[in-house]
Design brief:
Strand content: under 5%
Distance between the termini: 45 Å
Strand order of the largest sheet: 1-2
Helix content: over 70%
Largest sheet: 2 strands, antiparallel
Radius of gyration: 16 Å
Number of helices: 6
Number of strands: 2
Order of helices and strands: HHEHHHEH
Number of domains: 1
Amino acid sequence: MLLLICSTILAFLFSFVAPRRLSWIEILVTTWFGLYFEAMVNIFLDLKYDLYGYFEKGVDWISLLPLLGMYPPLNYLVLNLFPSGKGIIRIALYLIIWDAFSVAYEQLAIRCGVFYYNGWTWWYSAIVYPPIFLALRFHLHLAQTLIRKSR
């Protein structure tokens, strides 16, 4: 639990300190999309197939801590610092760095009892994180396009 509290505080701190490139509406829209996307995935992979989960098997209130404490600021940081227009190599390197960070944090969360695997492996996580980050980026691009068209 100490890991979760400390990392949540740090994630929010980094979010507030990082130079903001996104508007508040972009932050809101992408945060809600990220939470919705995560909830849909967890319904199947966690609750239906029990491949992984937070703390203990099943639904519990304490699972909201990592979902609402870590996901919003990390989604914001991934999208806010995304190297758009910087070339494919820089974007690939950026995704690899976030992928490595995410898998490492996941492993630490397992050791601290915040997260568990039950048929899932870190390799699966390493494979799915980059497409998830790209889906978040695509959604941000879609939101930016719709915002521009509405003006």
